[in-house]
Amino acid sequence: MAIVSFMISLAGATMLLLFAVRMVRTGIERSYGASFQRVLTGQRSLTQASMVGVALAIVLQSSAAVALLTAGFAASGMLSFTTGLAIVLGGDLGSALIIQILSFKLDWLVPALLAAGGYMFVKVEARKVRQLGRILLGVAFILISLRFLREAMDPIRDSAFLPAIAEYLARDYITAFLVGAALAFVMHSSVAAILMCVTLVQIDAIPFAAGLSLVLGANFGSGFIPVWLSRGMDVSARRIPFANLLLRGTWAVITLFAANMALRAGVLGDPQGGQMLVYAHLMFNASLLVLALPFCESCRRLMERLMPDAAVKDIEVAAGPPPCVLDFDNVGPPAQALFSLKRELLRMAALVETMFRPVLDLYQTGDKNQIKAVQAMDSEVNECLSGIRTFVAAMPPDEIGKANAKTARDMVEYAIRLETAGDVVAKRLTVLAGEVKKKNGKFSDEGWMELTRLHESILANMRLASNVLVSDDLESARLLSLEKTELKRAERDSRKRHLKRLQGGRADSFETSDIHLETLRALREFNSHIAAVAYPILYQNGQLLETRLIEEMQGEQLET
Questions:
Q1: Which domain of life does the protein's organism represent (predicted)?
Q2: Long-range own/partner contacts, residues 403-409 (CB < 8 A, 24 or more apart)
Q3: Distance of alpha carbon 507 from its chain centroid, rounded?
Q4: How far is CA 129 from CA 30, 404, 485, in A?
């Protein structure tokens, strides 16, 4: 019974730790996620890029999250391999600094964090304040989970079971290394895994030598997490996580053998305690960053040889845009038909995103060929809408049922929204980009920054909208609706600031005043169409009254 009770307590503490780490990361991503692109892609030196990685890992509570963000921007061509690898290496050090912060005994802080975070999250409506409350609650839950972990170990610490396992891991450091790697990968969080190891050493449940091997293994295992999560990305994205794994794995194995030989020879003395283990973890990651940073360019050449992409690119160019996934001759049963519709909507959304992504670049370059290429894609979006309408019309009404018919109509409604969003890009934003070039206009620094932030926010909302479309997740739909409201507020504030600049006599604001205001309106309308995917889910779950739904639809028609 004691073993069963121990396993339940350990599982509960571990799950709470994982949930808390994720809670903190979610709060920060929802508050500042749209700013990550500008931060990641604006670095000019490898040292600066690595420091950005350190900061982002501390903010996101995860080096894997930094690696995935970096891989995504590398796939889109917005980030070079060398800069991306430097950011990821810095992220590993930032993750180690999190361990140092959280390893302090801060149990006295828990009630204050729970009180402040709970009030912000439950009582305050402002989005960023609510997410700050989520972050504070997450930190409190991390500290509570570590306390639970220490308490779970108390009943068996003096038994014969745990000392036997601990002594074995101390003697067989290779097994301890592999256990640590597996633990980090299974938990999908190096922070959680290493905090667990540090806590075990702090309470003398395992000796320092076993803890060191476990931590080195967890460092190695954490390198597999972004490799696994990025497996479906383009090869240019996967090179960075693989290079990070190669560097981390090599240095972890070298350090494992060197450290254990030094411990057994007595060269390092007799290190004890969890804090010393934290220092060892910090030294490992700091030394890896210092040693690997000068070789980022060499790693690029190596990874390009190991993971070439020339053949893939040739195929992509020859293939052109992805083909329609709808089979008009074989609609299939309702579940299959709705799945096909959803896949086609995702393809349509991807086309619209491809049109929208380079809009601000067009404002700067005014390249006529690029403008025409974006405008030409609008016909493909129109064809998607036509195909979806035809496919829905071909679905047999006597077989599909009322609920499935309603879902199909909602999908057609969203396809119409996407087509209208494509028109906003092709017929308004690209035309405005041409006017900027024609007038040789220049935005004020403040105005351009406002447009850039709105653009980044909309791109983040497009990714969120695709997640809502795939998952039908209520929380994501609610968040998308809140993001729509937040963008409306940002657009309104930008308009007010622009008018204040005009009143102040700013010549650069006068030059592009009409274009700036029209761009704001177009961006707001585009985002409203994208966010419409959330309405059916909110309505079905009682989160949106029918009268409110009608008001939303009518209000957006007036904007158009």
A1: Bacteria
A2: 404/334, 404/337, 404/338, 407/338, 407/536, 408/337, 408/338, 408/341
A3: 39
A4: 11, 39, 15
> Based on C-alpha coordinates, what's the Rg of the chain?
27
Query: 10 Å Cβ neighbour count for 4?
Result: 8
Q: Would you say 83 and 77 are in contact if contact means Cβ atoms under 8 Å apart?
A: no
**Cα torsion at 113, 118, 123, 124 (round to 10°)?**
50
Integer Cα distance of 313 and 281 in angstroms: 40
Give dist(CA 194, CA 199) in Å, integer: 8
Q: Rounded to 5 degrees, what angle do the CA atoms 14, 91, 279 make?
A: 70
DSSP state letter for 109: G
At residue 104, φ and ψ (nearest 5 deg) are -70, 150
CB atoms within 10 A of CB 539: 16
Q: Tell me how far apart the alpha carbons of residues 70 and 458 are, in angstroms, rounded to a whole number.
A: 19
Q: Is the pLDDT of residue 403 over 60?
A: yes
518-522 long-range contacts (CB < 8 A, ≥24 apart) are 518/428, 518/432, 519/363, 519/429, 519/432, 519/451, 520/451, 520/454, 520/491, 520/494, 520/495, 521/491, 521/559, 522/424, 522/428, 522/429, 522/432
Give the predicted TM-score (pTM) of the model: 0.57
Q: What is the dihedral of CA 308, 311, 312, 317, to 10 degrees?
A: 140
pLDDT reported for residue 420: 94
Region of 525 please: left (phi>0), alpha (psi -120 to 50) or beta.
alpha
Enter the tokens of residue 560: 């158009």
**Spatial distance between the Cα atoms of 289 and 96, rounded to a whole number of angstroms:** 12
Whole-number Cα distances in Å, 436 to 40, 460, 520? 27, 26, 15
Question: How does pLDDT run across 480-515, given as a tens digit for each residue?
Answer: 887 888 888 888 988 888 888 888 776 655 667 888
Question: If you ran DSSP here, which 8-state letter would residue 426 be given?
Answer: I
pLDDT > 90: percent of the chain: 16
CA distance 102 to 495: 43
Give the model confidence (pLDDT) of 518-529 as tens digits: 999 999 999 999
- Using an 8 Å Cβ cutoff, are 527 and 455 in contact? no
Residues in the chain: 560
